[in-house]
Write a structure and sequence with these properties.
5 helices, 85 residues, 434 Repressor (Amino-terminal Domain), single chain
């Protein structure tokens, strides 16, 4: 079974995709705004690698959100029964 942290990372990637769609942006646009390669962003989005904290903070900034709000939106996607432990 996946840990809460793993589920939260999946939810974060999903929330980032939602934020991109709401802004009519593509992953390429976000990668460019972050100053990282598309392949790096893709590894984070596919959960092959965890988001480094500086990248997470910069993503929130690009979206005009505080890191706390972005994480709260992602956390809301994790099922309540998954939040124990």
């Amino acid at each position: 079974m996946s840990t809460y942290g793993e589920k939260l990372e999946l939810a974060l990637a999903k929330q980032i995709r939602i934020e991109l769609a709401e802004r009519d942006m593509e992953q390429k646009d976000l990668a460019d705004a972050l100053g990282i390669g598309r392949s790096s962003l893709n590894r984070y989005m596919q959960n092959h690698q965890s988001f480094p904290m500086p990248v997470f903070f910069r993503i929130a900034e690009v979206f005009g959100l505080s890191p706390r709000v972005l994480m709260q939106r992602a956390e809301a996607r994790v099922q309540p029964e998954d939040q124990t432990a």
